[in-house]
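Feature request, filed as a ticket because there's no other form

It would be nice if the structure record came with a short human-readable summary line next to the tokens. Right now we just get the raw output. Example of a typical job, pasted below so the devs can see what we mean:
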Amino acid sequence: MAVCSPAEAERFKRFEEFWPYYLRAHAKPLTRGTHYAAAASTALGVVAAVVTANLWCLVAGIASSFVLTLSGHTLIERNRQTLFVYPWWSISGCLRLSISALTGHLSEDMEKAGIVPDR
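Raw output as currently delivered:
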């Protein structure tokens, strides 16, 4: 299981340096799928919380998102989440991953990071 050590935590100074590392931690399509579902779950939780004025909708969206991403890393990719080492960059990475997939730029980003995407 890949672990991000304290030394690795210090090596990234900008998100653009972190992005290829993030992509390599999400090399398998099914892992990325859990992250797409997690991003959708969080967005749905935000919308539901605003519409219903019920904060529990937001909590449920975030909690389900965490379970989805954790299962992707633990069961599929067999590595650890970057969330605890790089919280904001990991959240930004999940959003960028989802947007890149939706706009058709993910394959290009992955190839730049040295990953040949599974089809």
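Something like this underneath would help us a lot:
The chain is about 75% helix and 0% strand.
Helices lie at 6-11, 15-24, 29-52, 55-77, 87-103, 106-112.
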